[in-house]
Design goal:
The complex is a heterodimer. Helices cover 74% and strands 0% of the residues of chain A. By secondary structure, chain A is an all-alpha fold. Chain A is globular and about 65 Å long. Chain A starts with a helix and ends in a 7-residue tail after the last helix. By secondary structure, chain B is an alpha/beta fold. Chain B has a 5-stranded parallel β-sheet with strand order 3-2-1-4-5, sandwiched between helices. The longest helix of chain B is centred in the middle third of the chain and has 29 residues. Chain B starts with a strand and ends in a 6-residue tail after the last strand. The chains are: A mainly alpha, B alpha/beta.
């Protein structure tokens, strides 16, 4: 790989980043411009019927760049800039910690941890059963268990080395998870409105039911682009963070399961929860909790203060720009290639999880949050 | 002119390339690309740490090296009596194939369809190359693996 040096590296991100920022600004302008427009006999068609906001426009623009304008590959001169997407999203999620209080986090955190655990380990068992029925390779079952159970690509990537999954199969598994994630990302906001979900109910639903972490964030912001306490993103991302925390434990369970079928292999002796926790624990979670602590101590300004307002505006910018990049990473050519048994297992487990989470919210989750 | 084989899991493509090389009396060059696209492909992984991604990319790289050795041995065992060279390069699969085809002066490129190589598995690699190759392209139908 070409070594550009620090200055060259920074300069290299400018074109792509400029396009992402420009697109985000355009999306904001387009939302305002389309808001009063009546269409097909409906008043304010785009905002009221299509629920179109700058987040959805940003994602769609990103998708158009990748799939129509760039024809499947982000050009080299823009690629470095678009790679900052992960940094934007992770920074935004860390900053999001500032909208919770420690008390609220503890209350909702326990509920989230319980529901997430039930759904995660339920999905793992379902995928193991489906995979065995379809005579899938044991290592691929392990990858699909993690991908469908926890949070899609992150969990698949974390699990694959431990279960010796073949890279080509991991690629197919990821394509399946992304396909399902993208579909649910686009339909969830409309279903949420159809069922008149509150932000809390919606956040719990998509945080539990959507397979991939990026798509949970996008679906929450598409439903309600506001970043503040009590909004969809506040609940959905708390669920997301819980899922990410649970990754090392799921990786451990799946790795132990995988090697239990190869007991004579020397690697089977080396599976240790502590080692997996050390290598797979998502460090950014500490930043997220750190922001909550700072907020609880009043060091980030009181509710309604200039500082908290500034932080939330900054988060909306960060997430908005990140959503352009998230859209630009969606390659329909890759998703189209998903197939084989991973597709059957992914679609079945993903749909069951998504629908069960919907039923759970409709039946037992109240409109208002427990704090 | 020589023949370029895009090396992947397909023994059908290997056999066709060897057959064509024998029939035409032309040397065969097999290109195996160590997939350098994982960093981008795992870009969909928004929240896990860089060590997790790094470990995976390292693991995938090691698996690729093992595959390159296994598939080279497989091809050599099928290519007795012909002039064969195997080249291993690293990069984005379709880009490296195109680069080799453009610079190597080949008259024909042989590849499996679908092409089973790392992240290229989830792309229509042949479609990516069509219209850009300076030589003819011979696609060998390879049944999708029952994974």
């Amino acid at each position: 790989m070409e070594n550009k040096g620090a200055a060259g590296g920074l300069l290299g991100i400018v074109p792509g980043l400029a396009l992402m920022v420009g697109t985000f600004l355009f999306a904001n302008w387009a939302e305002e411009a389309l808001k009063p427009v009546d269409f097909l006999g409906y008043k304010q068609f785009f905002s009221r019927v299509l629920n179109l906001n700058y987040i959805i426009i940003s994602i769609v623009m990103g998708v158009l760049y990748r799939n129509v304008i760039f024809r499947g590959t982000i050009p080299a001169f823009l690629a470095d800039g678009f790679r900052t997407t992960r940094l934007f999203i992770k920074t935004g999620v860390i900053m999001l910690g500032s909208i919770y209080t420690l008390g609220g986090l503890a209350k909702l955190g326990f509920q989230a941890a319980f529901l997430i655990s039930v759904f995660v380990f339920g999905s793992v068992v379902l995928v193991m059963w489906l995979g065995k029925r379809l005579n899938m390779d044991r290592s691929l079952i392990g990858v699909m268990c993690a991908a469908c159970g926890v949070c899609g690509v992150s969990a698949a990537v974390a699990t694959s080395p431990g279960v010796k999954a073949k890279p080509a199969e991991v690629a197919l598994a990821i394509a399946t998870i992304l396909g399902f994630g993208v579909l649910t990302m686009f339909i969830s906001p409309y279903l949420g409105n159809l069922f008149h979900f509150s932000d809390y109910q919606y956040g719990v639903w998509v945080g539990t039911g959507i397979l991939n972490s990026g798509q949970v964030l996008a679906a929450c912001l598409a439903f309600n682009p506001l970043v503040a306490p009590g909004t969809a993103v506040a609940y959905g991302e708390l669920w997301n963070v819980m899922r990410v925390i649970i990754i090392p434990f799921v990786v451990f369970v799946i790795t132990v399961w995988y090697w239990s079928g190869n007991k004579d292999d020397v690697e089977a002796q080396n599976v240790s929860l502590w080692q997996i926790l050390k290598s797979k624990f998502p460090i950014f979670v500490l930043g997220f909790v750190g922001m909550t602590v700072l907020s609880s101590l009043g060091l980030l300004g009181q509710e309604g203060s200039e500082t908290s307002h500034l932080l939330r505006t900054l988060m909306q910018w960060i997430f908005g720009i990140g959503m352009v990049g998230l859209g630009a990473y969606i390659d329909f050519g890759e998703i189209k290639a998903a197939g084989g048994k991973p597709l059957i297992v992914g679609l079945t487990a993903g749909t069951i999880k998504y629908v069960l989470a919907l039923i759970m919210v409709l039946t037992i989750i109240p409109k208002s949050a427990p704090f | 002119m020589s023949i370029l084989l895009a090396l992947d899991e397909s023994t059908q493509a290997m056999d066709e390339a060897v057959r064509l090389s024998r029939e035409r009396g032309e040397p065969l060059m097999a290109l195996f690309v160590l997939d350098g696209n994982w960093s981008d492909y795992t870009g969909h992984d928004w929240l896990s740490g860089s060590t997790v991604r790094g470990s995976y990319i390292e693991y995938a790289g090691q698996e690729d090296v093992k595959d390159s050795e296994r598939l080279t041995a497989e091809l050599r065992s099928r290519a007795e009596g012909i002039e064969l060279e195997v080249k291993v390069v690293q990069g984005v699969v379709r880009e490296e194939l195109l680069k080799e085809a453009r610079t190597g002066g080949y008259g024909l490129m042989v590849m499996a369809h679908p092409f089973w190589r790392g992240t290229a598995t989830v792309r229509d690699t042949a479609k990516d190359l069509l219209g850009k190759l300076p030589c003819s392209l011979f696609l060998v139908n390879t049944p999708v693996r029952q994974i």
